[in-house]
Each structure stands twice: as structure tokens, then as C-alpha cells.
Amino acid sequence: MLRVGLTGGIGAGKSTVANRLAEHGAVLVDSDRIAREVVEPGTEGLARLVEEFGTEILAADGSLDRPVLAAKAFADDESRHKLNAIVHPLVGARTGELMAAAKPDAIIVHDIPLLVENGLATAYHLVVVVDAPVEVRVRRLVSARGMAEDDARARIRAQAGTEQRRAVADVWLDNGGAEDAVLAEVDALWADRLVPFEANVRLRRPRPPMSPKIAAYDLAWPAQAERVLARVRAAAGELAVRADHIGSTAIPGLPAKDVLDLQLTVSTSDDAETLRELLCDAGFPRLEGGWYDDAQDGGEPWPKCLHVGADPKRPVNLHVRSVETPAWRLALLFRDFLRANPDERDDYRDVKLRLAEAHAADGTVEAYADEKQEWVNGAFGRAEKWAVATGWTP
Ligand code: ADP
């Protein structure tokens, strides 16, 4: 199943987007609704709130009197913690139940206002943020939802800001204009990204082969890499020695194929096997067959594992290398050497552009990659000298 986290400031249009995705077939999990359900009359949640805060928090009909609870629970930090300690685990458990009950080919959309505030981005294959300018949101909350203007502004101020949301957004939906405009974007997101993404994860489907095509350096690459690396680290847990952005997209100013190369370093090749299914489920199908790096010591090729990103709109190669071979260190050295030596970077650029042109009709990157490796292997020697001269360590 595919887990999509949907967030955005209040009034930005989360429900509008969520409802459209549900029309396409997404399974909606609504945090606000769950938060109400776990404290309905007759629930364990409500009983525990009464135990903690007294029967004053009950309305005449036995339901929770939210304003009274809020006044008590937000009076001081300790009370707020007590409220959270009761409600959060219940919401978490119910959310987990709903997700586990979904079919294996479900696309789950979790509408979760506090995704950013609670640091939950890595729990999802994809994070979608809906945004609109503050003034537009205030106007909508006042006119469409009948909220008092001061109340709307206070709620907006209490939430994460636009910049914090940008940092976790794989998809940014601008809903500052007409509703039809954002809905058209949602339709395209569903058909072109979420549907194939889900199938790629479930079927462990690799990226289709294509000819090498070099793109101009993109200033967005480092942040995109960081978002994907955060997921890799979360999936690998303690088995990750480290996880880094490597390859050409990690070199500022270098044109490159629009494929992020990421490296997960592990202690042993057994650990790489242990991680196989975890990485597949996290959205990185394993490419079958043996994968190797050229040995720079003249010995046998150095084995590695290769996973690829299942998101059709964000191609990723995830190299899983164990410290049992020197390849992980070399990948980091090569990156840092090119970052520090613009002449070498520009030489590499020229080689890439020439080979990409020569292989533009190949239909695969294999010959391009093999021929490029000759320059790379030569550069490793110069990089090692640079490492000695500068005292570089990984
Ligand atoms: P959220 O769930 O993020 O708080 P909603 O989806 O409920 O936001 O949207 C807030 C209000 O604004 C709703 O009444 C909704 O119908 C309305 N709305 C959403 N998008 C637009 C838009 N593009 N133009 C005008 N009104 C909108």
C-alpha cells in the first residue's frame, strides 16, 4: 500500500484535496475525525479524560464539552501534557488500525494537520502540502466556515509556517486561486504519480530503462535528496551507518541526469540483505541480479545492492554499500573532490555531455555509464592525492 501524508495550514484546502482524492479511490484517514471519535461517549478515551480533569468536562448529554476541556488542559504545560498523553496514543492506535485494514493495493491519504509540527514526514511515501496565502485562508475560514476572524488568525499563528512545510513537501499544491485549478492538479497527481507509485511499490517494479539525458544543475536537488534520505534513514534504523547524497546531482553547478544518487552505508552485506524488504516497502524496490563497483585495487569487483525510488516523478538510485568494501568511502571522496575542484568538475561535465550525445538513442544508460567510468576511475587516483594533501576523511 502507498501512504500519502496530506497537510497544510487550516483553511488551505486539505479537505477539498482529500475529498477529490477519495473520489478517485483513495482510502481517507482523517486525523481530526479520529481525534473526535476516540473521546466519544462510551469510549475509554472519554473515561480517562474525566478521571484526569473531572466531570465538569462533560456536557449535559454526556458528551465532551470541548471549550471546558480546552480551558483546563491548556491552562499550563503539565495539564496539556496529561491531555496529550491520553489522546495521542489512542489516536495513534486507531490510525494504525485503519491503515492496517486497508487492502494491499490501497492508496491511503492521511489528512493530518500537524504532520510538520509532529515531525511525521518520514512515515509516508509522499508528503503533499496544500497551501494558500494567509489572507486568503482567513477570508475562507470567516466566510465559508463562519469562524471569527480573530479565532482564524490565532489558529493560523499557532501552526507551522510555510517554510517548515516547504521543507517536507514532495508535492506543493498552490490553492490560492480557483478551486477548479487545484482540483485539476489533484487529478494529475493521482493519475500520473500516485497510481503508478503504488503499483511500483507493491510489485517491486523497477524504473523503465531510458537513454542518458543530461539536465542543467537544479538548485532543488539537495533538498529533494534530503527528504528521500530521511525516509531511507527511518527505514534502515540502526542498521544505517550513514546515508548520503552522492553522485553528480550532489555537485553544485554540475549538469547531470535527473536521477538522485543516494548511498546507504551498512556494516555488512548481511545487513543489506536484512534491509531488502524494509527498503522495498519504504518505496525503494531492489533491482535483482548482481551489482558491482569496479575494484580500484585490481582485485575482484566490489559487490553492492541497488534499490531504486518507486516514485515515478522523482527518480532515485539508492546504492547500498557495506563498509566491507572501500566503495562507500570512494563515492564520498569523489563527491567532495569534485565539489572542491571546479576544473575537475568541468572536465567531468564535458565527458558527460559528449557521451550522452553519443548514446542519446541507446534506450539504456549502460554504454554511457561504462564509458564514463573510465574518466571516473582516472579521477579516483587524483582524488586520493587530493585527500592526502588536504587531510580529507569521509
Ligand atoms: P482545510 O481542510 O485545509 O482546513 P478546506 O478544504 O476545508 O481547508 O477549505 C476551507 C474552506 O475554503 C472550505 O469551505 C472550502 O470549501 C473553501 N475552499 C477550498 N479551496 C478553495 C478555493 N480554491 N477557492 C475558494 N474556496 C475554497
TrEMBL record:
Primary location class: cytoplasm
Biological role: Catalyzes the phosphorylation of the 3'-hydroxyl group of dephosphocoenzyme A to form coenzyme A.
Gene Ontology cellular-component terms listed: cytoplasm
Subcellular location per the Swiss-Prot or TrEMBL entry: Cytoplasm
One Pfam family per UniProt: CoaE
Protein family according to the UniProt entry: Belongs to the CoaE family.
GO terms assigned for molecular function: ATP binding; dephospho-CoA kinase activity
Native source organism of the sequence: Amycolatopsis vastitatis
Protein name (record): Dephospho-CoA kinase
UniProt cross-references to Gene3D superfamilies, sorted A to Z: Beta Polymerase, domain 2 (3.30.460.10), P-loop containing nucleotide triphosphate hydrolases (3.40.50.300)
GO biological process entries: coenzyme A biosynthetic process
Known EC number: 2.7.1.24
Lineage per the UniProt record: Bacteria, Bacillati, Actinomycetota, Actinomycetes, Pseudonocardiales
Pathway annotation: Cofactor biosynthesis; coenzyme A biosynthesis; CoA from (R)-pantothenate: step 5/5
UniProt keywords, alphabetically: ATP-binding, Coenzyme A biosynthesis, Cytoplasm, Kinase, Nucleotide-binding, Transferase
